[in-house]
Every structure is written in structure tokens, then in C-alpha cells.
Amino acid sequence: MKKSPRFLQSGIASLFTLVLVLGAYAQAPADKPVDVIVQSVSVKNLTTHIEALGTLRANEFISLTSNGTKKITRINFEDGERVESGQVLVEMTSREESALLEEARFNADEAKKQLDRLRELAKRGAASESLLDQQVRTYEAARARYNATESRLKDLILVAPFSGVVGLREVSVGALVSPGDQITTLNDDSKMKLDFTVPAIYLRSIATGLTVVAKSRDLGDKVFEGKIVSIDNQIDEVTRAIKVRALLDNKAHELKQGMLMKVDLLAAERKAKVISESALVPLGSNNFVFVLKKSDSGTIVERREIEIGERLAGAVEVLNGVAEGDKIVTHGLQKIRAGQKVSVISEEKPAAEHIGEATNFSELLQRKKN
After folding, report:
1. Angstrom distance (rounded) from CA 96 to CA 102
2. Which of 30, 80, 123, 307 is buried deepest, with most CB atoms within 10 A?
């Protein structure tokens, strides 16, 4: 459809008017300073607070089983009893092994006596070297048979390899047990291993020796303190997390294997630049702030891109982009643009002065001390 000349002239006039209005609007803010509230970039000691869930494991743990198929003749412990390292826990039928051991001991002693006689004869030239060598072999073989029999006999007496607490007894006297049959368990619970996972983004923040505090609902949220002792050598491909192990003291033996614990960890202690969250101007995946700058015409603002780190309560850590002491705009951001003249009507306290000092971690430590 063909439009009339009058319609085209009217459209051009309207467009010209709109351009004049927009031009006037764009220039107007530059003539009159915009009122803003600012804040100085401050520095504060920060730590990264990490929360996780972990599972307790005994410092040492074994499942007590038999090495052979034998009948149990004696059980020397009660359910849940505390035992010492080297204490005899279970004895099994050993009459045949004892007889074989006695026979092996006799053969080894007899071979030793014959070897001593031949050595005396060889010194006087009454016995050949080949006969002496043969007797040495006979004695060594007899001694090896004795050691093997003694080892089999020891396998029929189960002793505690370390001090700890035994679990429930799974067998009775007279029961026939085979290799792999569980008789009981033994835990060294003087210290407990606490295994938990941490997102891989915190990998640079964690290290051995860092303090952790943990609590469990099963114990009424009682707080336990420990240290990180090891970090796994690989990151899980699915969860993108890494396993961390801490060691907790358990002198009162309250912690049990398999218990679920809530873990709080303070990592990456550092001095960091912080600003109020209200100063951020997000644009896509980037963040900007408006920084005050002196010019010949007065005070203007400069838009500057920054890299942020950890977010805090009402504040944010700045990794780079601003320096300590820079004045940034926190209020009036909707009315300003880069190069805009501004008038500072007030200055807020630095963000470092009003960030909450109390964290879950510090509260837990305080409760532990009390």
C-alpha cells in the first residue's frame, strides 16, 4: 500500500522530535550532579566456611575370622568388652597340631644333636664335608617343619592385634567355623576417622592440619573438634567432589562407627577486600561497580569491572578490580552512568565493620569451650 506524502512528513517530524527529547534527556544528567551514597573499599580477615556431612569410622577396624575349619573350644571375651593388644580372644581345637608340633620339635632337636657330632668329627678329619653338608640340610628342613607347625598352631589362637572394643559375639563354644566366618569385630575407637566430601571448587582452600568441628543429633548436638589428616588423590567424576578425612579424639568413647556427623570447616584464612552487596551492578555473568574519580569538572564516576569471590552476609569479597580505600557508589545507581557527575550526600561505614563476626563455626567452638 502506497503512503501519502503528508503521512511521511508527519512521521519524520515525530521522529525528529523524539531524537531531540532523547538528546536532551541524555545531556541533562551531565549538567546537574546526581546525589549518591558511597562507601570505601575495606579489608577484612576472612575465612571460607564449608559445611558437609560425614561418616565416622574407627581408627582401626577388623572382622575377626578363622584361618581354617575348626571347632571353637574357648571364648575369652564378652560382648562389648574392652580388650588389650595381644589378649587371647578365641581358642580352637589344637590337639592334632600340638602333637605334630611336639614331633617336629623332637626331630629338630635330634637333627641338631647329629649336626653337632658331625662338626666335632669333621674338625678331627673323621667325617667328610659332604656328610656334614647333608646333615646341615637335614637340620634346616627339620627346623622349617617345626616353624610351620608352630605357625599353624598359633593360627588356632586368635589374639587382639590392637587395643579396642569387641562387638557382638557371633558364635558359641563348640561351633565349627570356616575361613571367612565372622566371629566378632574389633574397633580401636580411641580416635575416630571422619570421612566427608568437599566440592572441588574448595580444593585450594583445604589442607591437612585445618581444624574441623563436628556434631551429631544422635549425641544431642554435642560438639567434637579434630584436624584434617588426609585428602584423597582424586576427584569424583560424577559429584565433582573430593573426599577428605579428619581425625577426632574420642576419649569418652561416645562416637560410634557409622555415625552421621555434620561437619563445619574454616579454610583459606586471608585478608580480603570487601564491599557492600548493594554496590554490585551485575550484567550477564560479569559484575561492575561505580568508582568515584576526581576530574576538572568535579567528581565523576567510572564504571569498573570486578571479579568477586565469596559472598557474605550483605557483603561480597572482591578479588580484583578495585583497591583498598576506593570510594564506590552503593545508592543512586539507577540514575548514574560512566562519566556522570555526582554529589556525595553521605558515606556508609565500610563493609568490613558491619559483616557479622559470629559464624556457625565460631559458635560451635564457643559452645565447646563452655
Report:
1. 10
2. 30
**34/30 Cα distance (integer angstroms):** 9
169-181 in b/e form (b: 16+ CB < 10 A) is bebeeeeebeeee
Say how far apart CA 344 and CA 323 lie, in whole Å. Answer: 20
Residue 31 predicted with pLDDT over 50 = yes
Cβ-count burial 249-280 (b if 16+ within 10 Å, e if not)? ebeeeebbbebebbbbbbbbeeebbbbbebbb
- Topology adopted by domain 94-153: Helix Hairpins (1.10.287)
Q: Within 10 A of 353 (CB to CB), how many other CB atoms are there?
A: 10
Cα–Cα distances in angstroms (integers) from residue 347 to residues 145, 256, 273, in the given order: 91, 55, 18
Cell numbers standing for residue 213: 568441628
Instruction: Please state which architecture CATH assigns to domain 49-58+190-269.
Output: Beta Barrel (2.40)
Cα first-last separation, the chain:
87
How does residue 362 score in pLDDT terms, banded at 50, 70 and 90? very low
User: pTM higher than 0.85, yes or no?
Assistant: no
How do residues 52-63 score in pLDDT, each as one tens digit?
999 999 999 999
* Cα dist from 176 to 69, 92, 105, 183, whole Å: 7, 9, 29, 11
Strand partners, 258: none
26 pLDDT more than 70: no
Quote the CA–CA distance of 165 and 159 in Å, as a whole number: 13
